[in-house]
Amino acid sequence: MSRINRREFIVSTSAAAVGAAATTPGKEAPSTVVAPQAFRSPAGSLIPYSRRELLRQGAQRTFTADHLSEIAFPLGGIGTGTVSLGGRGELQDWEIFNRPGKGKILPFTFVALWTKPQGATATVKVVEGPLNPPYRGSFGYERESAQGLPRLKGARFTGAYPFARIDFEDDSLPVKISLEAFNPFIPLNVHDSSLPVAIFHYRVACRSQKPVDLALAFSTLNAVGYDGTARLNSEHHAGFGKNLTKLHTEQVASHLKIAGLDMTSEKYGPDSLLYGSMALLTTHPDVTARTAWEGGPWWDSFQTWLDEFAAKGGLQDSKPSEPSPDGRSNYATLAPRWRLSPGESRTITFLLAWYFPLRENYWNKEEEVKGQKLRNDYGTRFKNAWEVARHTAANLKSLEERTRSFHRAFFSSTLPAHVLDAVSSQASIIRTNTCLLLEGKKFYAFEGCGDDAGCCPMNCTHVWNYEQALAFLFPELERFMRRTDFQDNLRSDGSMAFRTLVPVGRAQWKFKPAADGQMGGIMKLYREWQMSGDDAFLRELWPQAKRALEFAWVHWDADRDGVMEGEQHNTYDIEFYGPNTMMGTLYLGALRAGELMAMAMGDTEAAENYRRIRVRGLLRLEELWNGDYYVQKVPPADQIRPLEKGSDESWHAEAVQNGQVRYQYGQGCLSDQLLGQWFAEVVGLGYSLEPGHIRKTLQSIYRHNFKHHLYDHPNTQRIYALNDEKGLLLCSWPKGNRPALPFVYSDEVWTGIEYQVAAHLIYAGAVEEGLSIVKGARDRYDGARRNPWNEVECGSHYARALASWSVLLALSGYGYSAPERRLTFMPRVNAERFQCFFAAGSGWGTFIQRSEKASRVARLETHYGEVRVRRLKLRKEADWKGALVSSATGPDGKHLSNCKVNTEDRAWLLDFGEELAVSSGKAVDIRLASREV
């Protein structure tokens, strides 16, 4: 029986069931819309979407009504933690305290709008959409977030990371209000993309015929002293005490004055894990504030606050602020006020900053690192939260302009909208509690996040094999990870610890090595070298990389025939035994990468050795081909030789029990069976297997493993997709012979593997199949079933989902070799009018291509940094016999007189005749014309 598999993924939307017209989740589809027409791809696969759905360009999804309930849009920098903006406009999931905090709130943190039209009474409403059911509670509905106050009548949420926008609806108000929230996100700039701050722009437009007086009150709890674990429902907590909030005003520049709340605690010194501060400021010139709400029994405090704000549209302290008693903190409010004339609008900006510089290693049991204090990188740049907020305010124009530049470049693409959605939304993982950025820009990462603790620490090589986004967006952090792999985690025998103990240098993780993670590490090193062109970096790590690659001959491939037969621990948390192409293609990819790096380092003997072994492996792996896909050849139980575990891990179980082999896939169709070939496509390493067999295998994976619904799928494992949802199973057994106990996640659905397979299908020309897998995944994240900005596997914000970046690479046919100064674009969709974002190690921008009957126009434009290029490879038109350069203009605006075009691998290869440095704001323009040969 065919069955599904997946680790911790998310569900789908019913939008696919009502057709392309239903592009707004939460909006009823017209009754005339019928189910979309499935169609057959050129390869014969049944695609459960219409072509229109798969290729739709344009705006990102808008969420309304029930589809707002699961939205939590993370706001924060790399390694800073986040607070999330809910779909209705509420703040939730306060994860700024150096650990995850799903479901955690700060009580009575909300924004309220006061409006008073001339000659009319004032109204107060919380700037959020209506509360969604259920309203359960033994003592009535919860009130900790001011749920009893009136809210606006509707909200429409649009997320295009890093920007979130909410358009609120309420015809009873004399104004219209919207919110835009973000944190600076500037690819290649870690410094400005790692600020512990959330920025909120509230835009208010007057639609009254009379002037309207307004105030916008942002209330929050001074939470300094909170450890992020227990749920807060009031200002009382054991960690609170001596909390003090003060109103500060400061002239930051001649044109800029800031005012806000500086929230601290005198209870803790700088060496305490609870030491820190928060700040809430505005750039608006006229503010009122209350630094501590009035105390009192019952709900006197909130009632007093509401009465004062409703009557005056402002707040004022009745006495000087003073530290709170032990075990208690205070609520505070910052309230800008202003007047709008008919037709006038104004934007009120709030900056919410936090500063909790120390965290501890709570995740490891090893005594060498357990409980060690670790300093966040932002803790070395700033002294407190007020300084963070001041810095952000002073530089907001530049930070925002560069963030918007990325946003425009990315979302102006002609790639399908659901692809841009998948790629951008999961880039947020880099800036959640999955990732740490410690002092000195040291980057470490969990696999994902539990509700209140990180999951599966740290830098797990086999999970981070799938990630591609960090390598292209922030390559300096990826290079740091490679140094950690090869300098800190490589053991004396050449094996690599596939998890990192932090702080490094005290101990190495002792568990057995992961074959997929170690071989993938070689390919990742090759990728980092190609992206950077830094020969010194490669030379620094080459000796260790060589040892890591050749460790394969100790146990995995002892006879050096190019095929791994020995025990292969892997990303499924078990060991495979015997030849298989999942490990095999990673091994062959590592050998090819090793060969090329050895040649660059002048190590010709090693290069030739790797080549010979790889050639043997290519032939041997083909013996696993069954006519439809590749299988695993599982040895008998008495031939299995387990490696020493090195350390006891509660999750681990041996493969052999009572003389029987378990946790293999055997004759199954494994979705990951071409994992190394996918990686080879991403980094340009060529084929590891027979190309025709690769294409047939990918079609078999799609046909057998991609389910159009899961109503009939029995699954005793973890559930990431169900019911009417589409999803790609980790494995199926279309020819029978399913093991009694197959590998432990075989019936699950993981988005990271879905993206990997989707990208590989696209690389192989099966564009419709690939796009349908991506759409199926994103349909599960519809705001009602799951959060579109949190794809789950073994934890929230799971790193494997960063494989989504490879879908962008595949569709654009992008490649870059910095050592060769060579850029490649081979669009596989909308090629006649194509535009796409690219990142090339030292610069990023857009590539634009327009094709006509007898000419091709290409434009390479840099928006940030500098892109150095000498050669540009473009897809060759099928009906052109030859091409000539009719015009070529360099970044200085001058004609490139030496530019020539030749053919290479069914593509046009342009040589500019010189190396071009295309800096920010500059472009290269090329026009090719068809010619007879």
Sum this structure up briefly:
By secondary structure, the chain is an alpha+beta fold.
Outline the structure in words.
The protein is an alpha+beta fold and 933 residues long. It is 23% helix and 26% strand. It has a 9-stranded antiparallel β-sheet. Helix 7 (417-427) packs across helix 17 (767-780), helix 9 packs across helix 11 and helix 10 packs parallel to helix 14. The longest helix has 20 residues, at 581-600. It starts with 14 loop residues before the first helix and ends with a strand. Residues 1-23 and 26-35 have low confidence and may be disordered.
Compile the SSE list and pairings.
Elements: H1 15-18, E1 39-40, E2 46-47, H2 51-55, E3 62-63, E4 72-75, E5 82-86, E6 91-95, E7 110-117, E8 123-126, E9 154-160, E10 163-169, E11 175-182, E12 197-206, E13 212-221, E14 243-253, E15 256-265, E16 277-282, E17 287-290, H3 300-312, E18 331-340, E19 345-355, E20 358-360, E21 373-375, H4 378-381, H5 385-394, H6 396-411, H7 417-427, E22 435-438, E23 442-445, E24 448-449, E25 454-455, H8 469-473, H9 475-488, H10 515-532, H11 535-550, E26 568-569, E27 575-576, H12 581-600, H13 604-621, E28 656-657, E29 660-661, E30 669-670, H14 675-683, H15 691-705, E31 706-707, E32 727-728, E33 731-732, H16 751-763, H17 767-780, H18 805-812, E34 815-817, E35 822-825, E36 833-839, E37 843-851, E38 855-875, E39 882-889, E40 900-903, E41 907-919, E42 923-931
Parallel strand pairs: 35-38
Antiparallel strand pairs: 1-2, 3-9, 4-5, 5-6, 7-8, 7-13, 9-10, 10-11, 11-12, 12-19, 13-18, 14-15, 15-16, 16-19, 17-18, 20-21, 22-23, 24-25, 26-27, 28-29, 30-33, 31-32, 34-35, 36-37, 37-38, 38-41, 38-42, 39-42, 40-41
